[in-house]
Design a protein that fits this description.
Rossmann fold, seven-stranded mixed β-sheet, 10 helices, globular, binds S-adenosylmethionine
Length: about 240
């Protein structure tokens, strides 16, 4: 396969021998075909960072199945250490690119797919490196069961608008959120002035987290500098 273009940082502060040992040990937490065939209410998170949010959701919901992937080894080290100390059988993690992982998921098997704070690539010339592209949305649609949920959460108005524009044009998704919210997003995405989240999102439900929400590490860092999330949700048609 042609190497995939970068969507995030890969360099690790770990020595090559430590990286190799971690990769080896991660094998025991990776999803197998058998596990995938037996999942219940499968939730997949693409780009889990340090994995604490998916671990918390798996702990809160032991009857459901959780699968997270991450390309950055240092993030995986954190959740890996936790899993070594406290096994969590309904959670699988892997050091894999989201675009590759989705191609191994049995079609129509996931109840929910999440992208939480994907790398924003703010400069226009780098937008093509953003993980969410029409091709990825197509893979997400394949993996989701009918009426399955896709959530993308971002603190970057321009990424929010990018997502809404893709969803509005995607044949496999219903995008129930209002045109007004999309318009507010676009205005913010194009604005030069600092973001006033309450003013732009206050009246719209894009500002409201779902009931199962656990704040992520990136979200907490962004909140400290006043960047609040946009919760974008759509349903797979069918
Ligand atoms: C801004 S961080 C957010 C991490 C986490 N979701 C959070 O909210 O704390 C984006 C993450 O996506 C990961 N990532 C980027 N491209 C990816 C890809 N193609 N496949 C899997 N993970 C990816 C990055 O390594 C990084 O950890």
């Amino acid at each position: 396969m042609k190497p995939l273009p970068t969507t995030g940082r890969l360099a690790s502060r770990m020595k090559p021998s430590e990286q190799a040992a971690l990769k080896q040990s991660l094998q025991s937490h990776a999803p197998t075909a058998n596990w995938l065939a037996q999942t219940n209410e499968l939730e997949i998170e693409l780009g889990i960072g340090n994995g604490m949010a998916i671990l918390n959701r798996a702990q809160n919901n032991p009857k459901a199945s959780f699968l997270g992937c991450e390309i950055y080894l240092n993030g995986l080290e954190v959740v890996h250490q936790q899993l070594q100390k406290h096994p969590q059988p309904n959670l699988k993690i892997c050091n894999q690119d989201a675009r590759e992982l989705l191609q191994t998921i049995p079609p129509a098997s996931a109840a929910r797919i999440l992208m939480l704070f994907p790398d924003p690539w703010p400069k226009s010339k780098h937008h093509k490196r953003r993980l969410l592209q029409p091709e990825l949305l197509q893979l997400i649609a394949q993996a989701l069961r009918p009426q399955g949920e896709f959530w993308l959460v971002t603190d970057w108005p321009d990424y929010a608008f990018h997502t809404i524009a893709l969803l509005q044009n995607a044949p496999h998704f219903a995008f129930p959120q209002t045109a007004l919210a999309a318009a507010a997003c676009k205005v913010k995405a194009n604005a030069q002035s600092p973001i006033n989240h309450q003013q732009t999102l206050g009246p719209h439900h894009l500002a409201t987290p779902p009931t199962w929400w656990i704040p992520t590490k990136y979200q907490q860092k962004a909140a400290k500098v006043g960047r609040l999330p946009w919760f974008i949700n759509s349903l797979k048609l069918g």
